[in-house]
Amino acid sequence: MQASELQRAVAAARSIAASVDLTVDDAVVLQDSNKLTLRLLPCDVLARVAPAANHVAQTEIELAQRLTESGSPVAALEPRVDPRVYERDGFVVTLWTYYESATPREVSPADYADALGRLHAGMRNLDVPTPHFTDRVEQAQQLVASRDRTPALADADRELLGNTLRSLRRVIGRRDGPEQLLHGEPHPGNVLTTRNGLLFIDLETCCRGPVEFDLAHAPEEVGEHYPGVDQGLLRECRILVLAMITTWRWDRDDQLPNGRRLGTEWLSQIRAALDRDGLDIRS
Questions:
Q1: pLDDT tens by residue, 61-109
Q2: Bigger pLDDT: 54 or 232?
Q3: Which residues pair with 93 in a beta bridge?
Q4: In 10 A of CB 99, how many CB atoms?
Q5: Is residue 135 scored above 80 in pLDDT?
Q6: How many other C-beta atoms lie within 10 A of the C-beta of residue 202?
Q7: How far apart are CA 268 and CA 218, in angstroms?
């Protein structure tokens, strides 16, 4: 966030916390990207703050509640306040339990796969309206097609991303395998190592699709420990996900630190992966 916006967001979170009788003398910024994540002290609550426009915080809260009740490995909402979305000064704020990081921070692929499998098991019991993973692919395709939104993307790279997204979306869709509710982005940045074990956060990206789409966000070794994986589908999903996250890095509004450098590196990785797997994306 811009400095002025960040100050307003922090003030909104502190004001909301005070309004529900939480004591806040300090707010420590843990993450500043499309959302602001704060640790509020001394009440020790985690606050997630986002612009009010186009948010899906209510869906995230409902999913977190139901998954927590079923014993799924997800971060819990703050139990001292009502589980709802709070709004203040153009921001939406949700309040969560703060978890101290446990040691060691290194997560074994087997533990990662086990936690993701338990999350998927809990999600299979939920019937909630969520987008299909192809809807998210389409968002990336629209971004690639818009020169106004991706002005720095070279023509050859734009063609590469557009063809990769279109081709793999079609190829994966033709497989017609089992689908279910997914986390959507269970990458290491959305996994907490806590005394309660591994917990997944950031449920706003939930969608429906094959479990391989979720596994494509995790380190490669995780897929070797997840039972029943279609390894061919997982390879295709990995390239598709790489094309999607590369596309986000070329968005003129992208705020990820070093995002443009990563976008450049990932374009090279996409070309290498397509060559390695012998995938023809030109048709």
A1: 999 999 999 999 999 999 999 999 999 999 999 999 999 988 767 789 9
A2: 232
A3: 49, 86
A4: 17
A5: yes
A6: 20
A7: 20
